[in-house]
Specification:
Strand content: 15-25%
Number of helices: 3
Largest sheet: 2 strands, parallel
Number of domains: 1
Number of strands: 2
C-alpha cells in the first residue's frame, strides 16, 4: 500500500479496523468514521478500507439479539 503514496499515484489511504470499534457507542463510532472520511476528502484522491465491517453491521435480527444477550450477560 505504501507504493500508492509515491509517484506516480500520490494516493492517500487509511484502514479502519471495525473490530476495534465493537462495543463503542454509535455516536463514538460515527465520530471516528466521520473523522477518517473528512481526512480522506481533504487528501483526495483517497481509499478507505473498512476491515471487518460485518462486526458493526450484523446480517440478521437473530444475530443482533444474540449480540445484545451476550452484552447483557457480560455486564
Amino acid at each position: 500500500m505504501q507504493d500508492l503514496e509515491t509517484f506516480p499515484f500520490y494516493l492517500h489511504w487509511d484502514i479502519i479496523s471495525c473490530a476495534k470499534l465493537r462495543g463503542k457507542k454509535p455516536e463514538t463510532i460515527a465520530k471516528d468514521i466521520k473523522s477518517i472520511f473528512l481526512k480522506a476528502v481533504r487528501l483526495a484522491p483517497s481509499v478507505i478500507i473498512m476491515d471487518d465491517l460485518d462486526i458493526l453491521t450484523p446480517a440478521d435480527k437473530t444475530e443482533v439479539e444474540n449480540m445484545q444477550a451476550d452484552f447483557l450477560n457480560f455486564q
